[in-house]
Amino acid sequence: MTLSVEERFENSWSLADNIFHDRLREEAAVEKPINLRNPFLFYEGHLPSFLFTRAMKALNVESFNPDYDYMFQRGIDPDVDDPTKCHDHPEMPPQWPERSRVVEYRNRVRETLRDNDRMHQLDSMGMADMSIEHDLMHIETLLYMVLQLDKKFKRWSRVEVDAAKPLLHRISGEDFPDYVRIPEGTAKLGRNRETKKQQWGWDNEFGELEVQVNSFEASTLPVTVGEYVEFMRAGGYNRESLWQEEDWKWRKRESLSHPKCLIPKSDSAGEWEYLTIHCTMTIEEARDLPIYVSLGEARAYAAWKGKRYCKPSFRTHTSRTSGSSFRTEFNH
């Protein structure tokens, strides 16, 4: 079903509000669980500021709060290996404004967009896609922040364990194969500006490239918590041979011994709990859920299994290959 531009905007706003209002306590606004990111309050102001300064200005809408437009217009994206290297962005204020004022700013931006058919005007210019996708990308990264936030700042609730489990469990060789063969083919990466003039895209999407992909086998399911814990118990974080050079340096620098979604059990040495955005689960409860790890950790796990982590060209080709046996019927 195709959604109208109004529905798409409202849906993205609802998803953002679910994080800021439903998952976080009021005092979480100025918390910054990931050092390379800004506090939550910045992002609550950044989403409407981006919409206003990038899109609404194209409609010649006059600013009603230039200070907030500037303060929240651009976040930080420092180099992971050297955080001192960062693009230009507004200086962070010595004290953030009250959250209620930021919410007022957000609401007024939304109401301004709802007026005078402005959503359709932006859609005809290709800028609705830009604004909505920008919100959705931040919603994803905000969930990473919520995951790593101290639980005293969350609206913490223990859901029924069964509701969080997948509908299907992996039964090797019975319900479906562990691996499926993907035939050779061509993967198209990026976009061509000359043929996509009327379609919006991020700057790093342009420059089209065709890559020939040989036939390969791919796992039909995501790596699970239970499978990844086996890698940890086998000493995977201490075996340099499993890690690419830059990944190993990062692991050592960060003193990393487990992924962010696993936390040590306080009452049992060497045991772990699975951390979600709203509760913790035992490893046994979470064993069939997908694990969330960094690229470096994923590559090390793949090496431990004698496999390799799929390159973008392989993932693109797989997603466009008809008749594949990948499973999608899960509560993930």
UniProtKB/TrEMBL annotation:
Protein name: Sulfatase-modifying factor enzyme-like domain-containing protein
InterPro entries: CTDL_fold, EgtD_Methyltrsf_superfamily, SUMF_dom, SUMF_sf
Pfam families registered for this protein in UniProt: FGE-sulfatase
Species for this entry: Rhodosorus marinus
Annotated ranges, domain Sulfatase-modifying factor enzyme-like: 177-308
SUPFAM superfamilies from the UniProt entry: C-type lectin-like
